[in-house]
Amino acid sequence: MGHLIRTLNNPEELGRLPEAYCVLAKAYLEHRSGHMAGVGSHVPFSYNDLRIVVVRSESEVSLKSLKHECDLIDAEVERPVELFNNLGQIEVLIAAINTLGQFGLEAQRGAPTQQSRDSSGMEVADLEGDGWKLEAYGGQKCSSNKKLYEDICTLNQACRSGERMFLAFRRSAWDATYKTRRLSAEKSISVVGTTKKARPQYQGKKVSVSANLTLIGELEGVCVCEVKDIICNPSLDDAPAAGENSRSRS
After folding, report:
1. Which of 59, 65, 63 is nearest to 4 (CA)?
2. Is 115 contained in some domain?
3. Tens digit of each residue's pLDDT (9 = 90 or more) over 151-177
4. 69 & 16 share domain
5. What are the pLDDT digits (tens) for 214-241?
6. What range does the domain containing 80 cover?
7. Is residue 114 situated within a structural domain?
8. Helices (H) and strands (E) in the chain, counts
9. Residue 242 domain flag
């Protein structure tokens, strides 16, 4: 089964992400709500009525017919929870494309639904353009699965010398992790933490990560931060956990 949305290889395809979002969102909402039609008109609903609806709502969403509506869609079926998560990822990427475009940074290629390689096996960032790469997180909390540090480590490995590096995530996801550290363009934020996964490039260990983040733009609740001064080393057992040891830097 293919990825929900295939790798997009030019600005025109990336510009069609709102179209793909609308097609997929409609399918998701219809799937989640459509099963109520078979419950009947009696109120209140019985335990058994609602139990059946809940179970059926978790069945796979068929996407096969949607591929004719939007040729960016590659998968034929998807679990509802994965469809929901990927819609969040696409939303963040659309905002990031528009934000970076305000600075003359045109997105030229991207992997909208969390694939790390294209069909030929080449590595691809969530978004990338001439001289820059971006990793996005569409979830509700940056500390979930230590995603912030995973993405910083990924950028550090993928980017060539001189390439600019960016992260995109919802402000609410940042605030849920760093409640007392407000992102702003005036101050950089220093983050220190550890990846969840071990990486072969770091002696098969988890990676201790530090970096400075500076907000460059925000659109529809999505923050785009430039990442600098990344340091990645094999982690020690007492490496700090996600959400710890963060401080503002003037």
Report:
1. 63
2. no
3. 999 999 988 888 999 999 999 999 998
4. yes
5. 999 999 999 999 999 999 999 885 444 4
6. 1-107
7. no
8. 7, 10
9. yes
